[in-house]
Amino acid sequence: MKRSLRGATPRRARPAAVSLERDARNDRELVYAARAGDERAFDALFYRYRDGIYRLSLAITKDPPTAEEVVVDTFARAYRALARLEPDDTLRPWLYRVAINESYDRRPRVGATASSLDDAAEEVAATEERSPSVMAEREEVRRVVLTALDSLDDKHRTVVVLHYLSELALAEIALIVGSPVGTVKSRLHYALRRLRTHLSAHPGLAIEPAANERAIGRR
Amino acid sequence: MRDQSVLPLGERLEVEAALEAAFAPLRERRTDLSALRVRAAVRWGRGASEPAALRAPAALKWSGAIARLCELSVAVGMSVMVFAAANGPALEPRTVPEEPSVTPAQVRVVSAAEEREIRALRLEWVESLTSRLDAFRLDRYVPFQDWLDPTVVRPVTVRRLVPPAPRTDAPTTRTPY
Fold first, then answer.
1. What ipTM is given for this predicted complex?
2. d(CA B149, CA A197)
3. How many CB pairs under 8 A join A and B?
4. What is residue A217's predicted lDDT score, i.e. its pLDDT?
5. Disruptive mutation site among A20, A23, A46, A57 for chain B (greatest number of B CBs within 10 Å)
6. Which of helix, strand or coil describes residue B109?
7. Nearest to A142 by CA among A111, A110, A166, A165
């Protein structure tokens, strides 16, 4: 088989990382332990949130090396801020907020391509036994959706990525973006509507315009 | 004005399904970054204190400032010199002295006989003294100037190289002696 399957399946984590990732202590306990000098506690926090932050940053920057830099810088900032951190139960909102800011700081301003996401799609496709036409169709849908997502402004895109990629609840997204839950709902709703408008313009997706837009069109 | 009307559930689900499909490959992505890289970033990154091994010695603390000061003083000096030379009074051209460098008072005209005597006293006695050692000398590779040295080269060779002596009957030969 010509194509390399490296990364086609989730990479097997190292045993040490797995044991740290499965640390039963919650974030608050780990933060206090790390503050007391327990480096393994901080490592446990790192392995717990590493992949989530990496994916979030990858969705924004579209560049794997940059996303890895964001992960490292995010945890480096967390390490320096250990003395000030007071997490209630989870450190995730704080880490994600830092990661989002770092990602937008490093995001290419113009001409960004979704090459990393294309690579990921190829890896997934390699594991699935589907006909080329189905794979091509899925790839086209994915490309159109990501292009539509890129057309959103930062605050709406952030909410969509956090909700549908990171699968965070609206209350937690509100903590991350520093806005009330109602504002997050509003942004999500607006983003979905904009996305639907974009997607309906593409005939291959068979998505019709929103009902109120159809009504406006009839009038 | 932004449309705030509620998106019907069916329409919302279609968009969500498209988003799920688009994000599916991304959810499979993982990184194998190590926590060691974070520690390295903490120790060596921005805001971290520089390791003692890489810190400059205290003696060199002011060397940079002193070096810049020296450079500045040289630059100022050169600038002053250039401006002074450009705007100062022009130098007077050097005048050639009218008197000859060798005045007649320092020159004595000698006769041909006196010159022969001088040559015999100052040159020929050297040759007469060293000629006995000629048989023991080797023709060495020496600079051309040394070939004129009778203590180094055989007198025969010197005679071949040295230009002919002035005529003995020239009455106007000048010598500073």
1. 0.72
2. 108
3. 125
4. 47
5. A46
6. strand
7. A165
A173–chain B nearest CA distance, Å: 17
Instruction: Report the alpha-carbon distance of residue A183 to residue A200 in Å, rounded.
Output: 26
- Plot region of A7 (φ>0 → left; ψ -120 to 50 → alpha; else → beta): left
Spatial neighbors of B134 by CB under 8 A, at least 6 apart, are B154, B155, B156
How many residues does this entry show for chain A?
219
- Asked if B16 lies within 8 A of A195 by C-beta distance, the reply is no
Span of A139-153, B19-33, B121-135 with lowest mean pLDDT: B121-135
Q: Which residue of A has its CA nearest to B4?
A: A190
β-pair partners for B175: B108
Residue B80 is predicted with a pLDDT of 94
pLDDT for residue A119 is more than 60? no
Bridge partners of residue B174, in order along the sequence: B109
Which residues from A are below 8 Å from B15, CB to CB? Answer: 192, 195-196, 199, 207
